[in-house]
Amino acid sequence: MKLTSRGRFAPSPSGPLHFGSLVAAVGSYLDARAQGGEWLVRMEDVDTPRNVPGAADSILKTLALFGFEWDGPVLYQSTRSEDYAAALEQLKSAGLAYGCACSRKEIADSATRPAVDGGLAYPGSCRAGLAAGRAVRAWRLLVNDDEIAFDDRVQGRVAQRLERDVGDFVLRRADGLFAYQLAVVVDDEFQGISSIVRGADLLASTPRQIWLQRCLNFATPTYAHLPVAANSAGEKLSKQTRAAPLRPEAAAGELVQALRFLGQRVPAELARAPVAEVWAWAREGWSFAAVPRQPAIVVPA
Ligand code: GLU
Fold it and tell me: How far is the CA of 297 from the centre of ligand 1 (A)?
């Protein structure tokens, strides 16, 4: 029996959806449906200080108005602390996670290398245990210097050596919140996700997630990192760069733009058609092979 493939869209409710989020939603949705698979929505509200009141509901409403149909109930990370805590306990008992007492300043003063996605690679100062009187602030996962490589379906082969490129990374933050890396890995396993399609801004996180999957004895899904939309300064369109919110009243046009961004030869006149017609075209015409194999594409402001 062939197991159904399952994809997901995992927005953070830190603001309304924008064009960049639409691209990730469209790409993951059509890839899942083209394989006859399921598509789930997960609300990544684990980083509670960044949640904006009302954003989760507005995101779901926007997705529905754009004609997305998800399978099963939406999973909220804010309800999942017990599973994250259990995963952390499992890693601690296996000797793979350790308490770290370092402040930001101590890390800045002792780190010698930049990390792959900005910041500094953690130099492992607390690996050997804490000196008397030092208290645990964060929990970190032990990494090693082996190469972690995977074949991304869009970006090709990606390889990192975590000790060099990232350092032992945080699982539970100094403010007590579970880190994105842990939450995403535990939830992808919990939801049975077999195929991850998301923006290339997360490409550098993937080796960390694969390492965590191995430490927790989880299967590794396949990965496809879509190009992200960038402005002319090369910055990713995001809530931080104040990308314009999606406009449900112009859904067909915005869907057509997202499909074109993903290299699909969708007829321009569909921008004025009902949303259902755009989806009817997309279900037939979607070609994963046409997605541009690049990490970012500049879009006009
Ligand atoms: N919540 C993340 C974001 O909005 C996406 C995480 C993921 O797709 O793995 O950027």
Answer: 19
CA distance linking residue 157 with residue 170, whole number of Å: 25
**Residue 73 sits in the same domain as residue 94:** no
Domain contains 194? no
pLDDT, one tens digit per residue, over 69-95 is 999 999 999 999 999 999 999 999 999
Q: What percent of the chain has pLDDT over 70?
A: 97
Q: How far apart are CA 253 and CA 261, in angstroms?
A: 12
Q: Is 202 in the pocket of ligand 1 (CB under 6 A)?
A: yes
Residue 21, domain member (yes or no): yes
8 lines ligand 1 (CB under 6 A): no
Q: Does residue 244 fall inside a structural domain?
A: yes
Q: Which of these three, 130, 158, 180, is where a domain ends? A: 180
Identify the sign of the CA torsion 283, 17, 63, 24.
Answer: positive
Mean pLDDT, rounded, of the chain: 95
